[in-house]
Write a structure and sequence with these properties.
The structure holds 2 protein chains of 2 kinds. Chain A is of the alpha/beta class. Chain A contains 7 helices and 9 strands. Chain A has a 5-stranded parallel sheet with strand order 8-7-6-5-9. In chain A, strands 1-2-4-3 form a 4-stranded mixed sheet, with helices on one face. In chain A, α1 packs parallel to α2. In chain B, 29% of the residues lie in helices and 34% in strands. Chain B has a 4-stranded antiparallel sheet. The longest helix of chain B is centred in the first third of the chain and has 13 residues. The chains are: A alpha/beta, B alpha+beta. At the A-B interface, α4 of A face α1 and β2 of B.
C-alpha cells in the first residue's frame, strides 16, 4: 500500500498527488488535514472507480482508497452525462437586467424538465447563484435533491469574498472542474 | 409531494414583469419570476408566481403602483 502525505498542501495539490499515486498503486493511504481536501480527493477517487473509507485520527484525515470497479460503477460509466457550465450570474450577453431574468427562468425550468443534467458547475460571477441572497437557491436545492451535482469554483468564491456564503452544492477546484467537463458527453455553457 | 395553490400573473412585456417584481418585493410580497407556463401562452414570456391567497392584495398593489398586468391565472404547483 502506497502512502501519500498531503498535509499542508494547497489545493489542488492533494488531488494531483493522489491521482499520480493511483496510476502507480491500486491501494493508497492518503493523509490530508482539511475537509475541502478530503472532499476533493474522495470525489476524484470515487469517480475513478475507487472505494474510499475515511478515518479521523490525531487531527488528520486518513483516506483509505482501493481501486475497485463494481458492476454498478461500470453501468454508471455507460450512462450519458450532461454538464451545465454556468459561467456568469446572468444568461446570455447584451443586457444584464434581461440576463438576470433569463438565468432565473433557466434554473426554474431546468428542475421541471425530465432530462436533468448530471452536474452544474458555477464559475466566475456564476458562483453568486449558489450563495446567500441568490434568487435561484430554491431551484438549485430542488435540483440537488433530485441528484444533480452542484459544484462551485473555490477560486471564484474567494475572489468575490463569498466563501462562507455558500448555501447549496460543494466548493470545488479547477482540477475537478476541468475533469468533469472533459469526461462529460455533453457540455452546455450558459 | 406538497401541492401549492398559486396565482400566475401575466404581463404585456418583460419590462412590465421586472417592474412588477421590484414593486411587489419592496412591498414585502413573496413572488417568483418564472417563464410563462405553456398552458397560458405560447409566447416566450415572463410571469410572476405567488400564493393564491395573496392574489387580491397583489393585484391591488400593482394597481396602486400603476403597474399594468395582463391577466391572472390559477395553478396548482407540486413541490
Amino acid at each position: 500500500m502506497k502512502i501519500v502525505d498531503a498535509r499542508e498542501q494547497a489545493c489542488p495539490q492533494p488531488v494531483i498527488l493522489t491521482r499520480k499515486a493511483l496510476s502507480e498503486a491500486s491501494e493508497l493511504l492518503v493523509i490530508v488535514d482539511n475537509e475541502a481536501a478530503q472532499t476533493n480527493v474522495s470525489r476524484m477517487a470515487e469517480k475513478a472507480g475507487c472505494r474510499v473509507e475515511v478515518e479521523h485520527k490525531e487531527g488528520s484525515i486518513y483516506l483509505h482508497i482501493v481501486k475497485a470497479v463494481s458492476p454498478l460503477q461500470e453501468e454508471a460509466k455507460s450512462t450519458k452525462t450532461t454538464v451545465v457550465l454556468a459561467a456568469s450570474d446572468t444568461l446570455g450577453r447584451g443586457n444584464a437586467e434581461l440576463g438576470d431574468v433569463l438565468i432565473r427562468a433557466f434554473f426554474h425550468t431546468l428542475k421541471e424538465v425530465q432530462l436533468l443534467p448530471t452536474t452544474i458547475i458555477f464559475i466566475n460571477s456564476g458562483v453568486r447563484l449558489v450563495t446567500k441572497g441568490s434568487k435561484v437557491l430554491d431551484d438549485l436545492r430542488a435540483l440537488c435533491d433530485k441528484g444533480v451535482e452542484i459544484l462551485a469554483c473555490g477560486t471564484c468564491l474567494n475572489y468575490f469574498g463569498l466563501t462562507d456564503k455558500v448555501e447549496v452544492g460543494q466548493v470545488s477546484n479547477m482540477y475537478s472542474i476541468a475533469e468533469t467537463l472533459l469526461q462529460a458527453d455533453n457540455v452546455i455553457s450558459t | 409531494m406538497a401541492e401549492m395553490d398559486c396565482a400566475v400573473v401575466l404581463f404585456y412585456s418583460t419590462q412590465g414583469a421586472i417592474k412588477a417584481e421590484r414593486a411587489l418585493m419592496r412591498a414585502g410580497f413573496a413572488v417568483k419570476l418564472i417563464p410563462t407556463p405553456r398552458q397560458f401562452s405560447s409566447d416566450c414570456g415572463t410571469a410572476l408566481r405567488c400564493a393564491w391567497a395573496d392574489v387580491d392584495a397583489i393585484c391591488a398593489a400593482l394597481k396602486a403602483g400603476a403597474v399594468e398586468y395582463d391577466s391572472v391565472h390559477r395553478m396548482t404547483v407540486r413541490q
